[in-house]
Design goal:
By secondary structure, the protein is an all-alpha fold. The chain has one domain. Helix 1 runs antiparallel to helix 3.
Length: 114
């Protein structure tokens, strides 16, 4: 795997995470005044666009690299998303959540080694 592939994987992960955070932010804001001020739709659309970019990047990567090589990066997705939710959405990260993230990541690592 070369540097371009790692960059594409990183961009795909960040787009997927960013899209989910944008959509969650839009949903949180829709309870308030965002629908009246017109902020909901642009934020929601940005989330869908980011997730679409991540999806198509992953499709392109799957056509070029074995899935067994790409799959371990899925474990990073959970960690990045949890950190993004903590930082941008001010969500609490409990010890149980960290334990779950750790177990998922260990499971993905074990699967990728087999």
């Amino acid at each position: 795997m070369n540097a371009i592939a790692l960059a594409c994987i990183s961009i795909a992960l960040l787009c997927s995470m960013g899209g989910q955070l944008f959509i969650k932010f839009a949903m949180n804001e829709s309870e308030g005044s965002a629908r009246r001020t017109g902020k909901f739709l642009p934020i929601f659309a940005a989330g869908i666009a980011a997730m679409a970019v991540g999806f198509f990047l992953r499709l392109g990567l799957m056509s070029r690299y074995p899935l067994s090589m790409l799959y371990p990066f899925e474990g990073l997705d959970r960690i990045i998303l949890a950190l993004g939710a903590w930082h941008f959405l001010k969500e609490k990260l409990t010890p149980v959540l960290w334990l779950g993230i750790l177990l998922i990541s260990i499971g993905v690592a074990l699967v990728s080694m087999s």
